[in-house]
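Narrative of activities, Objective 1.

The group set out to show that a structural description can be obtained from nothing but a protein's sequence at a throughput compatible with the screening campaign. Below is one input-output pair from the validation batch, recorded exactly as produced.
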Amino acid sequence: MKELKEYIERNELNIGKIINEYSSFLYKVIKNNSYNLPDEDIEEIITDSFFVLWNNYKKMNLDDKISNYLVGVSKNILFNKLRKNRKQYINVNIEDYQNIINTKDDVENLFED
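Output recorded for this entry:
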């Protein structure tokens, strides 16, 4: 496990080197926790994780492990995405089921008659 300081060159983060070394690792981590998320979504999470690292590396301790940071960030992004997707499935439009509801009411009315 490499530390952040190993990727600092001329006071800048060598994000290209990190992407090359950690993309497949993050893919496996996300895939194992994603519950069959499509590859496009996994790639988006990986990209977002590297973007978060790029934006925040100056706030990090130079002795921090890159892999730990990236795993934490990618899991947070993943779980937020899964939570958002779950809400989309929960928000069902009742009008989609209007025919079923009307049919049930009709059957009950017929039974009562």
